[in-house]
Design goal:
Elements (H helix, E strand, L loop, with lengths): L8 E7 L4 H10 L5 E5 L7 E6 L8 E6 L12 E8 L2 H16 L5 E2 L1 H5 L12 E2 L1 H11 L12 H8 L3 E6 L1 H4 L15 H23 L1
Parallel strand pairs: 6-7
Antiparallel strand pairs: 1-2, 1-5, 3-4, 5-8
C-alpha cells in the first residue's frame, strides 16, 4: 500500500469553509481562511487534514481524507488559496510515507479541539497524537524543511505567510472541483444523535486523558 508521488511539489490548500464553525473562527481571528489541507497531486483530488469526520458532527474529529466537494455541499462556495511547495523526490516520498502512516493509524489520532479553542489567545497545548489542521500541515511541511521560527505556537495566518510565496491560485474552489468525486471522504454519512453524543463524550475523554498524561 503506497501513495504515489506525481510531481515534485506538495500542495498546501487554505480554505474559508462555508459552515458555522468556520465562520466563527474567521470572525474571531479576523483572517480570510480558517482551514488548511495537504495534497500530493496538482488536481487536489485527494486532500488530507484534521477536521470533523461528518457533516453533522462538528465537535469531534481526527485525521480525514477530504474531497473539495465537502466545501461545496448544497451549492455553497469556498474561497481557497493553493500553494505549491517545491520538494525533492526524497522529501516527496517522505511526506507520502508520513501521510500513509496517519492513514494506517487514523484511529490513534484525534482532533485537538482544546488547542483550537486557545487560538484567539495565541496559545496551544501539546497533547500526544492530537492535532489541529495547522499542526498537521506544519508537521508535513517540516519534512520538506519548512519550519516555523516559533516551534511552540503556530496559527494559520503564520503558516500562510510562510508559504504564500509559493501561491499558484487564489479564488473559488469550483475552479478545481470539476470531475471530482467524494472518494474516501465520509463527510455525508450522517450519524444519529445518540451516536454523535456518545462519540463526542468519548473523544473529549480521550483528549483530556492524554492532556493529563502529557503534562503529568
Amino acid at each position: 500500500m503506497s501513495l504515489s508521488c506525481q510531481s515534485d511539489f506538495v500542495y498546501v490548500v487554505f480554505s474559508a469553509t462555508p459552515y458555522k464553525m468556520g465562520r466563527l473562527i474567521r470572525c474571531i481571528t479576523r483572517h480570510a481562511y480558517n482551514h488548511v489541507s495537504i495534497s500530493l497531486d496538482p488536481n487536489l483530488q485527494k486532500l488530507y487534514s484534521f477536521a470533523r469526520y461528518y457533516e453533522n458532527t462538528p465537535l469531534y474529529g481526527g485525521f480525514v481524507h477530504e474531497s473539495l466537494l465537502r466545501y461545496q455541499h448544497n451549492g455553497m462556495q469556498t474561497p481557497i488559496k493553493v500553494c505549491a511547495i517545491p520538494v525533492t523526490p526524497r522529501q516527496k516520498q517522505a511526506i507520502a510515507s508520513l501521510i500513509l502512516h496517519f492513514k494506517l493509524h487514523a484511529g490513534e489520532y484525534i482532533y485537538d479541539m482544546l488547542s483550537a479553542l486557545l487560538t484567539p489567545f495565541k496559545k496551544r497545548l501539546f497533547i500526544r497524537n492530537a492535532y489541529t489542521c495547522v499542526d498537521f500541515a506544519s508537521v508535513v511541511l517540516s519534512v520538506a524543511d519548512i519550519r516555523l521560527k516559533d516551534n511552540h505556537y503556530c496559527n494559520l495566518p503564520t503558516l500562510e505567510q510562510l508559504v504564500t510565496r509559493y501561491m499558484i491560485f487564489e479564488g473559488e474552489s469550483t475552479a478545481y472541483s470539476r470531475g471530482k468525486s467524494w472518494g474516501n471522504d465520509r463527510y455525508l454519512l450522517h450519524k444519529s444523535m445518540s451516536l454523535y453524543v456518545g462519540a463526542t463524550v468519548s473523544h473529549y475523554s480521550r483528549l483530556l486523558y492524554r492532556l493529563i498524561r502529557s503534562y503529568s
